Amino acid sequence: xxxxxxxxxxxxxxxxxxxxxxxxxxxxxxxxxxxxxxxxxxxxxxxxxxxxxxxxxxxxxxxxxxxxxxxxxxxxxxxxxxxxxxxxxxxxxxxxxxxxxxxxxxxxxxxxxxxxxxxxxxxxxxxxxxxxxxxxxxxxxxxxxxxxxxxxxxxxxxxxxxxxxxxxxxxxxxxxxxxxxxxxxxxxxxxxxxxxxxxxxxxxxxxxxxxxxxxxxxxxxxxxxxxxxxxxxxxxxxxxxxxxxxxxxxxxxxxxxxxxxxxxxxxxxxxxxxxxxxxxxxxxxxxxxxxxxxxxxxxxxxxxxxxxxxxxxxxxxxxxxxxxxxxxxxxxxxxxxxxxxxxxxxxxxxxxxxxxxxxxxxxxxxxxxxxxxxxxxxxxxxxxxxxxxxxxxxxxxxxxxxxxxxxxxxxxxxxxxxxxxxxxxxxxxxxxxxxxxxxxxxxxxxxxxxxxxxxxxxxxxxxxxxxxxxxxxxxxxxxxxxxxxxxxxxxxxxxxxxxxxxxxxxxxxxxx
Length: 512
Prior knowledge:
Elements: H1 3-9, H2 30-38, H3 48-64, H4 73-81, E1 112-113, E2 145-148, E3 150-154, E4 171-175, H5 185-190, E5 205-209, E6 211-214, E7 222-225, E8 229-235, E9 260-263, E10 286-290, E11 299-300, E12 320-327, E13 331-333, E14 344-345, E15 370-372, E16 375-383, E17 394-395, E18 416-419, H6 424-435, E19 469-470, E20 481-483, H7 484-491
Antiparallel strand pairs: 1-19, 2-8, 3-4, 4-5, 5-18, 6-7, 6-17, 7-20, 8-16, 9-18, 10-11, 10-12, 12-16, 13-14, 13-15
């Protein structure tokens, strides 16, 4: 990853590498009180009017710097929940304020279903679902996926800019509905609904830079695109599959509280194609596809391709999508704290699909400095309607926050964040039954857990084996594009009134 790309991803606060740094007190006024004490007794001699002026200046400075006009978690969340176009499908969830350890995970739980047939319903007249979400059995097992819907937008990043509302470029969030700049692991674990299969059993936070679509007909000259669906892979490839005899260290581990991941990490290059990176094994960073995720035409790495909305015909239950893919490293350095997002490394020589994090491939021992976790990957699909193309689309992170120029090639700053908050028992269930299982290459015996089964669905995807599954989420039923200027006025101006919207590029950031 080049220096420009690194700078475009995020501005990371030096000396604060851990997610735990997000546990800040937004109401702490010690910084403002200290200068006042320096005046000592001389301050007493100030006239009342002069004191008022000094206090007013301090207040104004406080308003326009890091904390800006938002005083803390509740204020920031209230602003985010009031935004235009937010996904409101989950607002009435009875479990959004239920602490994680009080959630029911039994077969009788409303968040669990024993009717896997719900995942077979898609794309039919009268169906609530547009997408196929059954299992795709394979001989090498290790399959677990979930599907999610968009939740909200915000100029926040609680991992890289904790406690700084408006401190980032515009992000698109999915998963936990309450993620904001002041989010901590504890707030995420115990509050918020979820736009993913399983609802509050998966309160993980997922986010990526917002997709911008300049359009003279849009208010303010641009739309922010809403993805039609996001698919998250948690898979056990080769040594991340504990049922593989070569995985002598046990395969993928269960996530521990507070674990977070950023891909690619600022200052660390993305995985190279020869070790399973975004161009490895026939995959790509971007591709023009359809809602079945067929082979891309075109595909590209490091550059957003031009996709034409007339390519596929919606009458045949297919349509054009721009597919965005992000892969995360899955080797964890145990010498670092569990909540340190920089602990994820690419340990070499190590193909991403092999997951030889511990050096155990072909060996009798392993290096316990590293642990293996599931292969984590995002697929984010944006609809491209007939008559549209993506020739001038760009990511919010492509925009330089100083001069507001768009970095070329467009899409070259692609990255994403993950902050885990699965219910630990459910996490253990799908790790044991879906990720660390089914390794039988060459046997003809296939298995897979699909998009939410908590155990193997069997070899026949149209007639899955009985068992527990995560309840299927309601799909997004709103617009696929929202005026950028409207989001800027709702989400940036309360934080930074000194920054005004003049072009779509200025709306990509709230730090101008």
